[in-house]
Amino acid sequence: MSQQSSIRPATGGESVGKRESFQPPRGSRLDYLDAVRAIAIIGMVLTHIGMYAKVPVVVEFVASGRASITFAVLAGISAVFMARSASRRAGHPDPNTITRDGQMTIVKRSLALLVAGLLLSAISFGPMVILTTYSVLLLLAAVVLKIRRTSVLMILTALAAVITPLLSFGLRTIFPPVDELMVPSVLELTSVEGLLANVRVLLLYGFYPVLTWIPFLLAGLVLGRVVTSDKPRFRVMLGVGAGLAAISYAISLAVRFFTTFDAERRAAYEIYRQDSIARQDSIAHLGFGGAAPEYSWMQTESGTTRIDDIRSLLVAAPHSGSITEILGGIGVTAILIACMALIWRFAGPYLKPLATMGRASLTYYVGHILVLDVLLLLGLAGVDTELGLGVMLLILVVAPMIIAHFWFRKFKRGPLEWCMHKVAYLGVGEQGTKA
């Protein structure tokens, strides 16, 4: 029996096809993707509140890196929806063909995000802001979506996951970083050198270097094509994602514990730690009580792999940009999306608060950084004044869910989402539904 596909936005003239029994119910939005968006930002929140509460080490390790990777992959999926929306408006028979309007919609949204990211980085006292990298990835999507064959995108994703970390390693070995900047900021735009520093950290040296984040965009474009197809194979997505994650993390663990890699890292870190203690190099403002923390194999990197050991390319440390981190992170994102799609049919009503908050993902992301800034200004950061994990979760997870619930009773979009919509569709007719 044929029914309208439940995993595509419901618009006039939608194609009709068979629905797999495990697909989520039809709606004007893909709610399960909104839920994944919310999970991604909650994961980032958990990695950002170390100054205010003690987050269990394992929880922070699981969220670190993987949450922001999921956020970036979802950027690719969103780009697919924007392109398909423009194709529908133009009456194009091939939904995988991006029109000029579709490209301009993505470009305008990208530029708006770039401005937002530069401004937010200037006022963020703690969290590294991902929005500038996110914006450049969207800009690339406007070009890459010209490729209509999904199989070609899959091949490009696999190649990029291996080649971009190698290229980054080589370039940083030949041209070591010269900037202390970690993410681009509008404050650096007062001079030519500041502008160049912004470009360098954005593309290669920063916490979210575009070069090694390209695979996440490409993976998002592939997954976007999958979830918008007439018969999305979520179980296949789940299997492929699980395989990618398992193989990548197994290789990483093997390099760590069956070679001298981890022992050498531990010894080098202990020298640094003892030196910092001897010099009373206090970092109490980071919540460590005046001494560098003890070494842990779960520690986060600063956006790139180390260039003193090529084995780091196979170690899936969070925010390292290694081959295994990239492939493992893509696998985890595929697992999240597939699992959420599979369980939405029977658990959707219980997960609706999560999806509602995810509808305002940009507002939520920016808002949580502003709230953290306010708490810091109020003197509520650090080991002596920390609020506790429960209080922080109430402020940064529960409260936004409640606010989103009442907001969307009256409004169609979140505040910043409304602004982005107006910018993206400036001079373009009303669009179809987007994810």
UniProtKB/TrEMBL annotation:
Residues 318-426 form the DUF418 domain. Residues 1-26 are annotated as: Disordered. Coiled coil: none annotated. The chain crosses the membrane at residues 35-55, 67-86, 106-123, 129-145, 152-175, 202-224, 236-258, 326-344, 364-383, 389-408. Residues 29-236 form the Heparan-alpha-glucosaminide N-acetyltransferase catalytic domain. It holds the Pfam family DUF418. Keywords: Membrane, Transmembrane, Transmembrane helix. PANTHER family: INNER MEMBRANE PROTEIN (PTHR30590). This is Membrane protein.
